[in-house]
Amino acid sequence: MQPAMHETTGIGVPEFSPAEVRSAERETLIRITRALELARASGDPEAIRRAATQNQTIWMLFVTEMFNETNRLPPELRQSIANVGMSVIGEINDNLNGNLDVDFLVEINHAIIEGLATQG
Q1: How far apart (Å, rounded) are the C-alpha atoms in residues 77 and 74?
Q2: N or C: which end of the chain has fewer CB within 10 A?
């Protein structure tokens, strides 16, 4: 079986369809959310910090993408996602070494995972 062929941009970077991008975002968020859940269950503060830092990184990418002029999502949805992302990032920044609300992070991630599965 041959790998899927993609159109490329002018600089040779593959162009992925919106469905492929959503799928990759969803799979990444599932993996990070599972790490948060496992860290929470272990009670290990270092595992929680690592998982929360990974979560923060993906949300920083999501927020940055919401301000990308080529983003095709409706402006209202982009603003809503950016607002949620800023809340997630703020929670992690304010509480990474203290009383981090992992339940909040997991709940938000699950909502976005569900949205990425149904968006079309």
Answers
A1: 5
A2: N
